[in-house]
Amino acid sequence: METMTAWNRNIPFFEHEIKPLIRGQDIKILEVGSYQGASTRWMLDNLATHPQSEVWCIDVWEETPQHEGADFQQVEALFDQQVAPHQSKVKKLKGDSWSQLISLNNRPVLPEFDLIYIDGDHSAQGVIQDLILSWPLLLEGGIVVCDDYVWKENLEAWRLGFRDYGSPLETPKMAIDAFTLIYSNRIRHWMSYYQYGTVAFMKISA
User: Fold this and answer.
1) Separation CA 160–CA 168 (nearest Å)
2) Rounded distance, CA 117 to CA 147, Å?
3) Greatest distance between any 2 Cα atoms in the chain
4) Which of 41, 180, 184, 189 could join 82 via S-S bond, C-beta 3.0 to 4.6 A?
């Protein structure tokens, strides 16, 4: 769900941590939450450079509590414009991530991804759903990147009544912490702070 400006803050992490691992290979990327397509376009230009690489994009492209008032016809049109130069590599899956990920998991042959980027629903429930449902689709040795780890997260401020900060249930941190703890014997985990916090981990066993 990256805007153009917000995505720019994430580029150093992807340049230094992710790009050296996968650039130039025949890879498949799943992006949950594509919004205007800034992150999608960067990954197409910089990661999915092999002619056979693909980027699969899941987004509702309609108003949500995190994007109240946005013109989603314009947002979706901007996404389409961003990915147009690489159209043959892009699979656009329009709908909520819950339904789309269940549909992918129910295919007779599961699509398998080298990189999964989670940046959709930022509620704890939404993030944990996206992580659990995308896990079977990740290849062993593949990487999950979760954005906005501490987005609007300040538990003490929330308890004191400062509602500019989200309830812990409205932010990704609780879900990412829970998932990485429960799956700790199946992942290699690292973290970096470029924007609100980017968490990445590699699948070392199913």
Assistant:
1) 13
2) 8
3) 53
4) 41
Tens-place pLDDT, residues 132-155: 999 999 999 999 999 888 776 555
Sites in the chain below the pLDDT cut of 50: 156-162, 194-196
C-alpha separations of 44 from 147, 151, 192, 193 in Å: 18, 26, 22, 23
Q: What separation in angstroms does the CA of 153 have from each of 48, 89, 102, 164, 192?
A: 32, 35, 29, 10, 16
Amino acid at 118: I
**pTM assigned to the model:** 0.89
Long-range CB contacts for residues 3-12, cutoff 8 Å, separation at least 24: 3/35, 3/36, 3/38, 4/36, 4/38, 6/38, 6/195, 7/38, 7/39, 7/42, 8/38, 9/194, 9/195, 10/39, 10/147, 10/194, 10/195, 10/198, 11/42, 12/194
Judging by beta carbons within 10 Å of its beta carbon (0-12, 13-18, 19+), is residue 109 exposed, middle or buried?
A: exposed
Question: Is the Cβ–Cβ distance between 37 and 79 less than 8 Å?
Answer: yes
SS3 140: strand
